Amino acid sequence: MSLETEVDDLWHRYDDGDLTAADAGEEEYAVLEAFLDALETGEVRAAEKRGTAERGSASDRTQSGNGQWESNEWVKRGILLNFGLRGIEGREYGDVTYHDVLPLRETDDLPGRGTRNTPDGTVIRRGAYLGSDCIMMSPSFVNIGAHVGDGTLVDSCDTVGSCAQIGSDVKLGANTLIGGVLEPVEDAPVVVEDGASLGAGCRVTSGFVVGENSVVAENTLLTPRIPVYDLVEEEVVYGHLPPERRAFTRFVESSVGDHDLFEGGAYKPAVVAMDVEETTLEGVEREEALRE
Questions:
Q1: Using one digit for the tens of pLDDT, what is the confidence trace for 84-95?
Q2: Beta strands of 17-172 (E only): which ranges?
Q3: Average pLDDT of every residue of the chain
Q4: CB of 147 within 8 A of CB of 164?
Q5: Which strands, in side-by-side order, build the sheet including 267-275?
Q6: Any idea what DSSP says for residue 184?
Q7: For labeling, which of 10, 39, 212, 252 is most exposed (least CB within 10 Å)?
Q8: What is the pTM assigned to this prediction?
Q9: How does strand 215-216 pair with strand 116-117?
């Protein structure tokens, strides 16, 4: 029986009310532990990019470039089972006792792959994947189900939410928030594709996809509710930033217009996307000495 089949079986028992935390035993916990191990090794992922074919419902597909990012519903269910079938326990982290349903991820495997996390505040939750040659600066947090690719920098005060998919050679500037998603289970998570660079203070939420090799300016909010004015293709898009764009926030006139409560009209945030210039790429170039 495959891991997917075992997780689906547990989910149906749990969803039907035939399995509770009080009922779960060694057999059920063995499946949950194997599932978390598979997340940490990258064997399974909460979402994957698959070809160009139209698959699944519109709610679980997010287009970027030449492929479709699709959520793996059974993986998200497996994550939810790890909350629903476990109780809160007191655990130790350094000199601090915390209370959670999951322990933190073991990090003994990181040095052998060239990945490092600095002390006093780098928190990697059980079920998170970190690739080779990654750097995690403190304080930062990577949640369950997140997938962080090779050579990626997670800077100070960054949060990588549940199930977020971060590509290889990505730069997450300080104080960047990558939103998570566990409900509804069919919704696609936030995706930051290979080679992208996000400036300090960026926020990416609600399943937004940042295309590969894009450069996002500081304090930019990327969410499906905010329009992206793509000046390269001369179109307005929602939910994704096309690959190889330079993006920044601007304010455009709102349909609210003039109102008795304020003067000067109303404005709403928007994102402007332009071609990436050579000088922009030079400004976010990787420093290999940091990764040797």
A1: 999 999 998 878
A2: 47-50, 61-64, 67-71, 89-93, 96-100, 116-117, 122-124, 129-130, 135-136, 140-142, 147-148, 153-154, 158-160, 165-166, 171-172
A3: 89
A4: yes
A5: 116-117, 135-136, 153-154, 171-172, 197-198, 215-216, 245-253, 267-275, 228-230, 235-237
A6: S
A7: 252
A8: 0.89
A9: unpaired
Q: How far apart are the first and last CA of the chain?
A: 42
Chain Cα centroid distance, residue 167: 9
Cis-peptide into 119, omega within 30 deg? no
Fill in the amino acid letter for 193. E
Q: Residue 120: how many CA atoms within 13 Å on its side-chain side?
A: 1
- Name residue 6's amino acid: E
Q: How far apart (Å, rounded) are the C-alpha atoms in residues 107 and 95?
A: 18
Q: Is the confidence at residue 54, as pLDDT, over 60?
A: no
Contact 246, 274 (CB under 8 A): yes
What Cα–Cα distance (Å) separates residue 54 from each residue in 50, 67, 190, 240? 10, 10, 20, 17
Strand partners, 50: 68
Give CA–CA dist 20/119, Å, rounded. Answer: 37
